[in-house]
């Protein structure tokens, strides 16, 4: 799309240089492989197990997280793309993709990340992400529920 990607179009990046497509038929296997890589397990005592248990219930019910981050992969099966207005953020990063959407990322292994969550790191902490969705979706989560959700996310 020369209008959306003028520099790439000018450089000819959209023009196929050889007659044989050596990539497309391998993408499904690559995707399967990526999904099959196990996420690293959180270290013992890196999260509060009791709070994580309560957070799991919230994740699947009141907080509505599992509607997009579906267990056991904690991403969305099938077409997992959302328009910015669906997730309550601007379209700055989405406009870089051909369909102008954000992809639902897996939440597994979040404990490794210490700062910079979301597609572009705009939320410094997991609590900031939870506060965003609490406000955007009008969930009315109590502070203790938010803490429990953070502990659950750290346990994935």
Summarize the helix and strand pattern as letters. HHHEHEHH
Give the overall shape.
globular
Unreliable stretches covering 5 or more consecutive residues: none
Widest sheet: strand ordering:
1-2
Whole-number radius of gyration? 19 Å
What's the overall average pLDDT, rounded? 90
Task: Tell me the number of strands.
Answer: 2
Number of continuous helical runs: 6
Main structural class = mainly alpha
Quote the distance from N terminus to C terminus.
39 Å
Share of helix, binned: 25-40%
Strand content: under 5%
Biggest sheet details = 2 strands, antiparallel
Fold and architecture overview:
It is globular and about 60 Å long. The chain contains 6 helices and 2 strands; from the N terminus they run H-H-H-E-H-E-H-H. The protein has a two-stranded antiparallel ribbon with strand order 1-2. The protein has 156 residues and is mostly helical. Helix 3 (49-60) packs across helix 6 (143-155) and helix 5 packs across helix 6 (143-155). It has helices spanning 6-11, 27-36, 49-60, 84-87, 126-136, 143-155, and strands at residues 81-82, 102-103. The model has no long low-confidence stretch (mean pLDDT 90).
